Amino acid sequence: VWIFGYGSLVWRPGFEFTSSKVGFIRGYSRRFWQGDTFHRGSERMPGRVVTLLEDCGACTWGVAYEVRGEQIAASLQYLNMREAVLGGYDTKLVKFHPQEKDGGEPILALVYIATPQNPSYLGPASEEDIAAQIIVSSGCAGHNIEYLLRLAEFMRYFCPQAEDKHLFSIEEALISILPCLYYTEDSPEET
C-alpha cells in the first residue's frame, strides 16, 4: 500500500514504512483551509493546516510512503486516528507520479483530504489572514509557524522546480508580519 502525504506527513510520517518517493498528484491544489484544534491549534485558537482542493489543472507535490506486511495495519490505524478522528480528513485513492525520471508508471496511493463538510473546515481566506492565524496558534505537535515553514522548506529542497504560490504567499505574509523571523535554505531558524 502507498500513502501520499502533502502536509506534515512529508517531514513527520509517524509510522514505519519500507520506502518513500517524492512526487506529485494531479488534479488537486494544496490549501491552508483546514482548521486544527489538536496538533497545531486549540479549541480557542484553531491553527491552519493543509488540505487538497479539486483543481483540474493543478498538481500537488509531496511524499508517497510504501507500507508492507505488518506495517499496513499499524500505519492505517495510526493515520486513521491522526488524520480522520483528530483531523476530520476522509480518504481517497489517487495516482501518484514519482519525481525520478525512471520512476515508472504512476502508483495508486491513499490520500487524506479534508472536505468542506467536516466541522473543522475553515475554507478560504486571504494569505495575510491565514498568516495572522498561523502566528497565534499552537497545539500538541508544536507551533503552527513550524508547520508552515517546514512545508515551505520541503518544497524548496525536494521540489525546487514546483511552484506553490499559495504556500509561498502565506510564508511571505508571515515574514512581513514578523520581520525578525528569517528563513534561508541553509538554516530555517527563528532569530
Automatic annotation (TrEMBL):
Its EC number is 4.3.2.7. Transmembrane segments: none annotated. It is found in: Cytoplasm, Cytosol; Golgi apparatus, trans-Golgi network. GO terms for cellular component: cytosol; Golgi apparatus. It is an enzyme of class 4 (lyase). One of its GO terms (biological process) is nervous system development. InterPro entries: ChaC, GGCT-like, GGCT-like_sf. It catalyses: glutathione = L-cysteinylglycine + 5-oxo-L-proline. Its main location: cytoplasm. Keywords: Apoptosis, Cytoplasm, Golgi apparatus, Lyase, Neurogenesis, Notch signaling pathway, Transferase, Unfolded protein response. Gene3D superfamilies: Gamma-glutamyl cyclotransferase-like. GO terms for molecular function: gamma-glutamylcyclotransferase activity; glutathione specific gamma-glutamylcyclotransferase activity; transferase activity. Catalyzes the cleavage of glutathione into 5-oxo-L-proline and a Cys-Gly dipeptide. Acts specifically on glutathione, but not on other gamma-glutamyl peptides. Glutathione depletion is an important factor for apoptosis initiation and execution. Acts as a pro-apoptotic component of the unfolded protein response pathway by mediating the pro-apoptotic effects of the ATF4-ATF3-DDIT3/CHOP cascade. Belongs to the gamma-glutamylcyclotransferase family. ChaC subfamily. PANTHER family: CATION TRANSPORT PROTEIN CHAC-RELATED, GLUTATHIONE-SPECIFIC GAMMA-GLUTAMYLCYCLOTRANSFERASE 1. This is Gamma-glutamylcyclotransferase.
